[in-house]
Amino acid sequence: MRKVRCHYISGDAFVGALAGRVTDQAIEVFTTEGFEPGEELLLEVYYPGLPGKMMVRAIGQEWHAARPRLRVRAGGVLRCTGPEWRKLEFLAKVARGNVPLTPRRRHLRLPVMIEVRWRRSNDTDSTTAALSEISERGALLLTHERFSEGQELIVEITPPGSERPLEVLAVVRNTSNPEGIGMEFMARDMGGVHRLREVIRRVVEQ
What we know:
Layout: E1 2-7, H1 11-18, E2 26-30, E3 40-46, E4 54-64, E5 75-79, H2 83-96, E6 110-120, E7 127-135, E8 138-142, E9 152-157, E10 166-174, E11 180-185, H3 190-205
Parallel strand pairs: 1-3
Antiparallel strand pairs: 2-5, 3-4, 4-5, 6-7, 6-9, 7-8, 8-11, 9-10, 10-11
Helix pairs in contact: 1-2
């Protein structure tokens, strides 16, 4: 999946890029990197004052080249749905000052959509679910199951082209997300970290 960068000059500029497009769940982007209608992309969003860059999955709607005589910048419109749109709404709240900033995550979570299997650490039966965000330190597991913070899970992630899953011990850290739960991966050694990095690379690049 190709990445498109769009850095806004200010938080107000970012809010303006969403204005008038809320009904369509779309955002105006300014980029010289052209895209096709219907193309799936990773959008890198940033504006001054944001603790870090945010990655969201998006679908191309339209793109146009720059028109210097008309003072039109190169860019277009991307559409985001579901959890990806909610990320943009959250960034808009931050830009307006409605949400206090928190320290930047050490590891950027990348948007994915991959099927996994999970089980509670004291169970033998596994359940199928999906991850919508992942980094080497954690992930968002899409599920309506109820958990308590600190609960341990075993997550099986099978990278593309592999038949053998990687089993990762995870601890529930966030239960307030309506889409699922935030988990922290507990790599026991550097070998486990390196294997997890390779799995994430293959998942993101599929």
